[in-house]
Amino acid sequence: MGSNTVLRQVFGLGLGAAACVITLHAQVPDGKPPAFEVASIKENVSASDNASVRVQPGGRVSVSNNSLRNIIRNAYNVQNYQIIGGPDWVSSVRWDITAKAPDDAPPQQLLLMLRTLLADRFKLVIRNETREMAIYALTLARSDGQLGSQLRASSVDCAAIFAAAKAKGEAPAPTTNGRPTCGTRTTRGSMMTTGVAMADFARNLGPFTGRPVLDKTGLTGTYNLDLTWTPEDAPPGLDGTAPRSQPSSDGVSLYTAVQEQLGLKLDAQRGPVDVLVIDSAQRPVED
């Protein structure tokens, strides 16, 4: 499958979105759900592997070759395994959407506008539930608590760095060695963090394991880490299938890498997970 490009500053879809609290009915102060000025929806029948969700200048939002399931995932800032139910076409049929918001619409309003569009045009009805599901608990691998060579306590004060950057009205200066100044940088088969708490790292693992990961290490403070593994030859699809992390025959799995490189372990358990349940959805009238 091709890439799914998302402007994360606006849509907030990051790897740390697992098991988040979902707000279904957020509204603007006048009580009316915010909506795009105009929106066009067409089924994509190209059979292309390329898919994207983009925010463009002038308040334009462009969704290309995405299933409704993946659009919901973006609009509600959840992971695939947090979306339950719906007819089969929700995952199989792809859509192109072009929408225009007011030029001065704040970025955070675009999410609410996308939710309104899904309710109006796809007749999407969803609800919150907490369900007992398969999870992974991130624990210490060794009884003596010794950590792996690729996991180190961080001395970086990310709160101070971000506060200083905000005071200047700019983003934190990038590093020259490829590390994120603060936070997480992820590519297919690798993850690198600077000044990140274990709870955040655990959430960032969720999209690669296909289920929520909860921090049960007992480690406090923040950490720098470097994690590399060999994912499957085929990258995750955009049709609602969970990302896979089994390695090729000559590689190391994510689970082995977490244990050998970080001194941690992913322990399969069951626990409560916030989910979105699709009660109903209809194919939109195209325009």
Question: How is this fold's topology laid out?
Answer:
Layout: E1 4-6, H1 8-11, E2 38-44, E3 51-56, E4 60-67, H2 68-75, E5 83-85, H3 89-92, E6 94-100, H4 107-121, E7 125-140, E8 151-153, H5 158-168, E9 183-187, E10 190-197, H6 198-209, E11 213-215, E12 222-228, H7 254-262, E13 264-280
Parallel strand pairs: 1-3, 5-13, 7-11
Antiparallel strand pairs: 2-6, 3-4, 4-6, 7-13, 8-12, 9-10, 10-12
Key features?
about 290 residues, alpha+beta, five-stranded mixed sheet, four-stranded mixed sheet, 7 helices, 13 strands
Summarize the structure.
With 287 residues, the protein is an alpha+beta fold. 22% of the residues lie in helices and 32% in strands.
Written account of the structure:
- A 5-stranded mixed sheet has the order 1-3-4-6-2. A 4-stranded mixed sheet has the order 5-13-7-11. It has a 4-stranded antiparallel sheet with strand order 8-12-10-9.
- It contains 7 helices and 13 strands.
- Helix content is 22%, strand content 32%.
- The radius of gyration is 20 Å and the shape is globular.
- The chain is an alpha+beta fold and 287 residues long.
- A hairpin with a 3-residue loop joins β3 and β4.
- The N terminus is likely disordered.
